[in-house]
C-alpha cells in the first residue's frame, strides 16, 4: 500500500519560519496549545524522552532534536524517507525507505528498499531489512483486497488483488526488549531484535466499507470494498501490549471516518479492535492514565480514547504526529500543505503547565 508515500508527495511547506516557543503557564481548565517550531518540513513522527523532543523529518531526511529557540539540531542526516523514530536509553532507531521517482505507471513511485536503522550506544548501525523480509514472506499474500466483484477493473490498482510485495517501514516503538515496526506497505506489524532479525507479529485486518455512487471512480466499484489496512503507528503500553492506528486512504474519495485503533498481543498476535470512526489516523500516543491520543490528519486535530469512548481533545488542523511527555504534556506536529494560503508545518505542546525542552543532543 502506498498511502503514506502519497501523503508525502502531496504535502509541501510554505517556508522555514523559526518560531519563538511559547511556554504554557500552569493553569486549570482546557490545556493550552503552544507553538514551538516551524523548522521541520515534514514532521512524520516525534519521540519524547524526558525533556528531549526528537523529530523525524521525512522531506529533509533528518532526525533532529528540538531546541528551546525552535531550531532543530541535527542528530542523523541524509536518511532517505525517514519517518519513524524511537529511543531506548542510549539506543536510537529510525526507519528509512528508498523509492523510485513517480511515473505514469506508478504515480507514487515504487519502494525498492525499506528498513529499520538501529544505532547502538557505541554508535554502530545495525540495519534490519524489512523489504527483504517482505520479499521472502509477503505475510498478507493470501488476503484479497478490492471490490466484492472480482471482475471489476481487473487491471487497475482499484481492482481485486491479493497482498502485494511492498514494504514501507513507517513508525517504530521500543518495548519488551525489542523494536516494533508499523510497515505501511506490508500492512503488518513486525518485531525487530537489536541484532536486526525481523519477524512477523500480526497482519492487520482488511477494512470493509461501502462506496457510494458519488465517490466511486467506476460504476462497478459501488458497494462493498475491502481496503488494505495501512498501519501508521505502533506504541507499547505498560501492559506490554501493542497499540496501533490504521488508515485506508478512503478519505481521498471523500469518505471520512474509516481509520481504526487496535490492540495487539505481541506474543500471540491476537488483535482487538478498540475504536473506529477516525479520519486519517496517522499517529497515536499513550497517556499516563490509560488514555490514548490519536492524530487525525483529516479529522481536524487530536482525539482521545478513554474507557471505550472517543472524544475531541485539541483542535489542530493537519495533525500528523502525537506523543506524550513529562507531566502529561502532549506534543504534536502538523504537516504544512501547499494551498492557496500556504501553511507551514508546526510542532506544538498541549499542556496545563510549564513545558521545558532540553537543548542537549542525545
From TrEMBL:
<keyword id="KW-0732">Signal</keyword>
<dbReference type="InterPro" id="IPR048031">
    <property type="entry name" value="ScyD/ScyE-like"/>
</dbReference>
<dbReference type="InterPro" id="IPR015943">
    <property type="entry name" value="WD40/YVTN_repeat-like_dom_sf"/>
</dbReference>
<feature type="signal peptide">
    <location>
        <begin position="1"/>
        <end position="26"/>
    </location>
</feature>
<protein>
    <recommendedName>
        <fullName>ScyD/ScyE family protein</fullName>
    </recommendedName>
</protein>
Amino acid at each position: 500500500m502506498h498511502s503514506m508515500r502519497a501523503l508525502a508527495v502531496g504535502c509541501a511547506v510554505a517556508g522555514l519560519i523559526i518560531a519563538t516557543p511559547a511556554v504554557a503557564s500552569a493553569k486549570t481548565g482546557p490545556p493550552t496549545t503552544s507553538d514551538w517550531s516551524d523548522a521541520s518540513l515534514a514532521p512524520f513522527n516525534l519521540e519524547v524522552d524526558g525533556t528531549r523532543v526528537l523529530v523525524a523529518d521525512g522531506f529533509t531526511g533528518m532526525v533532529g532534536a528540538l531546541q528551546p529557540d525552535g531550531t532543530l539540531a541535527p542528530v542523523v542526516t541524509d536518511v532517505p524517507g525517514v519517518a519513524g523514530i524511537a529511543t531506548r536509553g542510549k539506543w536510537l532507531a529510525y526507519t528509512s525507505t528508498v523509492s523510485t521517482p513517480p511515473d505514469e505507471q506508478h504515480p507514487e513511485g515504487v519502494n525498492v528498499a525499506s528498513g529499520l536503522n538501529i544505532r547502538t550506544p557505541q554508535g554502530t548501525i545495525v540495519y534490519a531489512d524489512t523489504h527483504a523480509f517482505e520479499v521472502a514472506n509477503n505475510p498478507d499474500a493470501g488476503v484479497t483486497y478490492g471490490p466484492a466483484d472480482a471482475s471489476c477493473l481487473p487491471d487497475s490498482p482499484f481492482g481485486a488483488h491479493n497482498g502485494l510485495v511492498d514494504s514501507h517501514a513507517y513508525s517504530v516503538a521500543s518495548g519488551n526488549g525489542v523494536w516494533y515496526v508499523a510497515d505501511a506497505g506490508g500492512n503488518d506489524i513486525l518485531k525487530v531484535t537489536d541484532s536486526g532479525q525481523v519477524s512477523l507479529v500480526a497482519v492487520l485486518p482488511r477494512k470493509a466499507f461501502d462506496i457510494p455512487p458519488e465517490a466511486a471512480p467506476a460504476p462497478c466499484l459501488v458497494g462493498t470494498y475491502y481496503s488494505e489496512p495501512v498501519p501508521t503507528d505502533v506504541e507499547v503500553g505498560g501492559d506490554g501490549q501493542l497499540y496501533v492506528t490504521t488508515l485506508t486512504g478512503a478519505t481521498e474519495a471523500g469518505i471520512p471516518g474509516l481509520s481504526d485503533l487496535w490492540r495487539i498481543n505481541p506474543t500471540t498476535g491476537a488483535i482487538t479492535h478498540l475504536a473506529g470512526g477516525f479520519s486519517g489516523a496517522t499517529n497515536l500516543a499513550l497517556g499516563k492514565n490509560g488514555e490514548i491520543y490519536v492524530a487525525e490528519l483529516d479529522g481536524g486535530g487530536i482525539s482521545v480514547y478513554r474507557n471505550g469512548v472517543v472524544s475531541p481533545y485539541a483542535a489542530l488542523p493537519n495533525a500528523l504526529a502525537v506523543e506524550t511527555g513529562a507531566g502529561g504534556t502532549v506534543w504534536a506536529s502538523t504537516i504544512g500543505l501547499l494551498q492557496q494560503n500556504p501553511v507551514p508545518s508546526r510542532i506544538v505542546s498541549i499542556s496545563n503547565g510549564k513545558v521545558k525542552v532540553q537543548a542537549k543532543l542525545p
